[in-house]
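A reminder from the course coordinator: this example appears on the midterm review sheet, so study it carefully.

Given structure:
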């Protein structure tokens, strides 16, 4: 019988690409999503696949998960609230989703006797690191509630592995990009901001001088790392997932094309994110396959996905990030 993989947040950006991979690999896939940021449209192309089951449920409600994990062989836990400013404005919601929700998922998996578990962590937990490329041994320095809640979720997961012997790995993801990235009304990841601006014929808003670099990692490479980690014998390992390089925001703007305009540099943001991927390469043999340029080209081929996304201007960005400057300065 095919194995069953359960994906929390499976209708989201990364989750939907993981679902594609799992279905292509012959797994039965059970998606749990409350559609707060995930979109049913992300899985519409798989709607007729009998191996896919879609369950609308909120991981923050333990009762909603009763029986949902029964019979699952593997659990990929991706469901979470993201973005910086909303986490500053509503820390309770982030704690409920990312900490309480992770507790509920871990307990549901444990009680169902799940064989393998993956926790999706964030490179934001490193804050502003001392060392580049940044290894997994770097100090955790979360700068805002989102990063803190993702760090606490990872600690919960590792504790469940220690105490309850749940076979588990955690992947710390760096700056994931690609088709289907979020288009919510929240000011967030640079790709969504730039692509909506490009479609609207507006200038791309460059933070500071644009020389800051990010370890932009293509989404299918991330999904493949997740699959390899869960289908390995590893347990208790924490591994970075990055592109093997880092690329300036100015370079991204140049590849996308169009005019640019500067907006103020923001407190608490690192000048560089750059993952040390030695560990995942050594333990899993994983390497990124999609170059930054290839990934950007693929995003541009799918740019219509962002046609309903909000179009940000310097003025609306200033309003949206007011609390960022207020609390993180």
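Designed residues:
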């Amino acid at each position: 019988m095919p194995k069953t993989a359960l994906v929390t947040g499976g209708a989201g950006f990364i989750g939907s690409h993981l679902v594609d991979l799992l279905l292509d690999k012959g797994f039965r896939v059970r998606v749990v999503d409350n559609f707060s940021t995930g979109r049913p449209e992300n899985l519409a192309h798989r709607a007729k696949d009998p191996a896919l089951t879609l369950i609308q449920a909120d991981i923050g409600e333990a009762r909603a998960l009763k029986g949902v994990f029964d019979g699952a062989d593997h659990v990929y836990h991706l469901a979470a609230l993201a973005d910086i400013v909303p986490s500053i404005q509503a820390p309770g919601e982030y704690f409920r989703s990312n900490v309480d929700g992770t507790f509920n998922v871990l307990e549901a998996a444990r009680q169902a006797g799940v064989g393998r578990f993956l926790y999706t962590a964030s490179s934001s937990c490193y804050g502003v690191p001392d060392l580049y490329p940044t290894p997994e041994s770097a100090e955790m320095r979360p700068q805002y509630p989102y990063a803190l809640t993702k760090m606490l979720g990872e600690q919960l997961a590792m504790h469940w592995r220690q105490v309850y012997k749940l076979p588990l790995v955690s992947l710390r993801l760096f700056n994931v990009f690609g088709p289907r990235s979020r288009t919510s009304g929240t000011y967030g990841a640079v790709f969504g901001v730039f692509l909506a601006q490009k479609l609207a014929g507006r200038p791309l808003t460059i933070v500071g001088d644009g020389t800051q670099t990010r370890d932009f990692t293509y989404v299918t490479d991330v999904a493949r790392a997740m699959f390899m980690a869960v289908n390995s014998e590893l347990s208790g390992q924490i591994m970075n997932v990055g592109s093997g390089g880092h690329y300036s925001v100015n370079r991204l703007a140049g590849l996308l094309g169009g005019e640019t305009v500067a907006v103020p540099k923001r407190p608490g943001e690192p000048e560089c994110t750059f993952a040390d991927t030695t560990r995942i390469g050594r333990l899993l043999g994983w390497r990124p396959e999609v170059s930054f340029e290839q990934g950007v080209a693929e995003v541009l081929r799918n740019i219509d996905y962002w046609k309903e996304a909000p179009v940000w201007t310097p003025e609306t960005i200033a309003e949206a990030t007011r609390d960022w400057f207020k609390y993180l300065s």
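The radius of gyration is 19 Å. The mean pLDDT is 96.
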